[in-house]
Amino acid sequence: MIESSVARRARRGLALWRDRGAEIRPMPAGGLSVPSCSEPGRSYWVSLVVEGRCGCADWRLRREPCKHIFAALVWAAKRRQRQPCERRVA
Ligand SMILES: [Zn+2]
């Protein structure tokens, strides 16, 4: 089966969120801290602005959404689901 690289990263990002989502944190200056799945104790800075940015080697090389960006997207979507009403602007 041929799987696109983006689909593979989306699947790995979902797995990363499932395993380590509790460690994803918003950063004071903006963006998110997302744990590395290959290096324990390491985390990457991820921005979801526009198409997303990540500090990992994969993103720097390809400039395409990596698993950390996908994990951050799932994290952000889940957070929005939890607080749909308080954030509503009249
Ligand atoms: Zn990354």
TrEMBL record:
UniProt cross-references to InterPro entries, sorted A to Z: Znf_SWIM
Origin superkingdom: Bacteria
Species name: Rubrobacter xylanophilus (strain DSM 9941 / JCM 11954 / NBRC 16129 / PRD-1)
Single GO MF descriptor: zinc ion binding
This protein's UniProt keywords: Metal-binding, Zinc, Zinc-finger
Domain SWIM-type: 44-77
Name of the protein in question: Zinc finger, SWIM-type
A Pfam family assignment: SWIM
